[in-house]
Design brief:
C8orf32 fold, 9 helices, 8-stranded mixed beta sheet, mainly beta
């Protein structure tokens, strides 16, 4: 993982910062004045539709009536709507956790909208009937509400408390979001009996203070029949406070895998509980223990360790004729890929039994790929499930087994000592290929007693493309040519999907319409379209009718870079490309006998950094033929924000050079 997006692990014992009381914003619910509507003294992006004036939260452990401690999370948020597009900010979702042992509850929820009319503040209170609850899954619900009377210019605020008996569920805090935040504060007070690992992320600077205190906790233990016992204990505690001011909006930028990797936030993972006079209880598992647990789960590994003999009859004709283990594995993979339909991705756990998935011939990504593992194992091929986090989902944590950071499962097969990652949920993928979204850093291969780390970075992918164009003119006013394109693997898959969706004729029609002049295509074909392991080759002849006295034409025809991929002047996040690039274009142009060359571009070559890539444009006029070779090569996929200007200028030069025309003049 890279510098600007690393998850920084901050342990309680190593935090050292200073925070002064005067830095804290004094704001109270219900206390608002007309002057508060004027935000002109604050600096923020005025193009946004809403601005968070203050977002203040705290988490504290308190004694409960069950003889233990509960978490109390309080939040107070105040927002101003700047225009009509900002009304969405008034819809609030409060996530809650529950299981068989209890549920988190929202207490003291209140909200109000303020409008300023003729110098007077009008208040509209949130009504209880506007608050409702949605269930997401077997462990998660959400309380939702929308503040009333929201419109351009109003200020609204809300506050609530979440009480939780799940002491492991210390609430995270986001300092950054889709609206700018003028002030954000989060205070967490943790008694020493709990040891949490802090996971901080983001580049925006936070003020952080820690103060050590001595706290008393009063406990009540209800014993039934109206009786109860009371007790108390004291404990050292650490009070952490984070403050961020003038936080910019989180904006999408091109070639960003996921904004989740860059948002400024703090999260917590319970590591240990150390009750007095009791042994230490470990809550953060190791990867070894996690692998063992996963392989015992009924909706993950248990299905793979069963005797799945019911697969034998189905796979017998599939592997018929396989001469070795590689052929056998490839046939099984192609069978699963071609006969099972993916209904999308939905986490890492099975949605039903493998037998049902096989019967239905459909399932989620994890269903199909876990079934593939079972099929391979059943036929004597060493195979294991592999969990990963896709690019859109964000980075998984490299050190800790935080399974909610994973959203995708693929198969890993070992054949004759060589490993292959397989994804049978994608109909255009060849053996040993994965979707681009899977190349997002560390993955974990789940062995029976080991979760082995493996790196899948975009830098391991090199997308090579070679295009050759030959043009000649055998009679006045008519140019004929031939196009040959040997595409990169992932561009080939894109072609396969387009052809499957709309047909080959439509594919070539779109090529013809991309030419700016009067072009006609003929003898068009796509080779290796159904060979999923190979890159495709696109071939076609073309005819151009051209009789102007002066002819200006782009020697790259439909190829080349037409616009800069990096238009923004500034860059906040790293550039994350999906693969390395190596694109070569060759032109052999026989100068028509009835024309002379008036002007051709000049040859040029520029480097990107010392060895990060290069661009070359080599052109030559022999008097009868113009030959052009241009190549764009990028040797890495990840560029830090401070490297952005060089990358932007590099592609700006490429676009400018690719736009330069060859000028021909008709002989008199």
């Amino acid at each position: 993982m890279k510098n600007s997006t690393l998850l920084l692990v901050l342990l309680l014992c190593i935090v050292n910062a200073s925070l002064y009381a005067q830095d804290k914003l004094k704001i109270k619910y219900g206390k608002i004045a007309p002057a508060d509507f004027d935000l002109s003294k604050h600096q923020f992006d005025t193009s946004v539709s809403a601005v968070v004036i203050a977002d203040i939260g705290s988490s504290n452990f308190e004694g409960n009536n069950k003889g233990g401690l509960s978490l109390s999370f309080k939040r107070h948020t105040r927002v101003k709507i700047l225009n009509k597009n900002g009304v969405d900010a008034a819809t609030v979702t409060i996530p809650l956790f529950f299981n068989n042992n209890g549920e988190e509850k929202v207490n003291g929820l209140k909200g109000v909208t303020y409008s300023l009319e003729n110098g007077k503040i009008i208040e509209t209170e949130l009504e209880k009937k506007s608050v409702f609850k949605d269930k997401y899954d077997k462990n998660h619900v959400a309380v939702k509400f929308t503040l009333p009377a929201v419109k351009e210019g109003v200020i609204f605020e809300y506050s609530y408390t979440v009480v939780s008996d799940f002491f492991f569920n210390l609430q995270p805090w986001r300092f950054q979001g889709e609206y700018p935040v003028l002030y954000s504060e989060y205070e967490v007070k943790i008694p020493e009996i709990y040891n949490f690992v802090f996971l901080a992320q983001g580049n925006f600077p936070l003020k952080h203070d820690v103060e050590h205190t001595r706290e008393s906790y009063n406990l009540v233990d209800s014993e039934g029949a109206g009786s109860s016992s009371r007790g108390s204990f004291s404990s050292n505690a650490a009070r952490h406070t984070w403050i961020a001011t003038n936080v910019p909006v989180l904006k999408w930028e091109s070639f960003t895998s996921s904004l989740r990797n860059h948002i400024s936030k703090i999260e917590f993972q319970l590591s240990q509980v150390r009750y007095p006079n009791s042994p230490v209880r470990e809550y953060m598992s190791s990867w070894t223990k996690t692998a063992e647990d996963l392989m015992k789960k009924s909706n993950f590994g248990e299905e793979l360790t069963k005797s799945n003999n019911w697969l034998n009859d189905e796979l017998a004709p599939v592997i018929n004729g396989a001469s070795n283990n590689y052929d056998k594995a490839k046939k099984i993979y192609e069978y699963a890929r071609d006969r099972f339909t993916s209904t999308g991705k939905y986490g890492i756990y099975l949605s039903t039994s493998l037998r049902n998935i096989n019967k239905n011939k459909s399932g989620y990504v994890q269903d199909i790929n876990l079934l593939l593992v079972a099929m391979l194992k059943q036929q004597g091929i060493e195979a294991y499930p592999t969990i990963l986090s896709t690019r859109n989902h964000g980075y998984a944590h490299e050190l800790y087994p935080l399974l909610d950071r994973y959203d995708y499962v693929v198969a890993y097969a070992v054949v004759d000592g060589k490993g292959y990652f397989l994804d049978a949920s994608e109909p255009t993928l060849g053996f040993g290929k994965l979707p681009l979204e899977c190349y997002n850093g560390q993955v974990r291969i789940i062995y029976p007693t080991l979760a082995k780390a493996f790196e899948l970075f975009p830098d391991s992918l090199n997308e090579r493309k070679m295009v050759s164009v030959f043009v000649r003119s055998e009679k006045p006013g008519e140019w004929t040519g031939h196009f040959t394109g040997n595409l990169g693997y992932y561009e080939s898959n894109s072609v396969r999907e387009k052809v499957k969706s709309k047909g080959e004729e439509s594919f070539f029609k779109s090529i013809q319409t991309s030419y700016t002049a009067d072009w006609t295509l003929a003898q068009s074909k796509i080779e290796k379209l159904k060979e999923m392991d190979a890159a495709v080759k696109v071939d076609y002849d073309f005819v151009l009718n051209q009789e102007d006295d002066m002819v200006y034409f782009n020697p790259l025809f439909t190829e080349g870079y037409r616009e800069n991929r990096f238009k923004s002047v500034e860059r906040n996040y790293p550039v994350e490309m999906p693969f390395k690039t190596d694109e070569t274009y060759l032109l052999n142009f026989d100068i028509p006998a009835d024309y002379t060359v008036e002007e051709i571009p000049k040859s040029a070559k520029v480097n990107l950094g010392e060895a990060d890539g290069f661009f070359e444009y080599i052109i030559d006029n022999t008097g009868t033929t113009i030959r052009l070779r241009t190549r764009v090569k990028l040797n890495r996929t990840y560029f830090l924000p401070e490297e952005y200007n060089d990358l932007r200028e590099f592609f700006s030069y490429v676009v400018k050079k690719h736009a330069e025309p060859i000028v021909l003049k008709k002989k008199k």
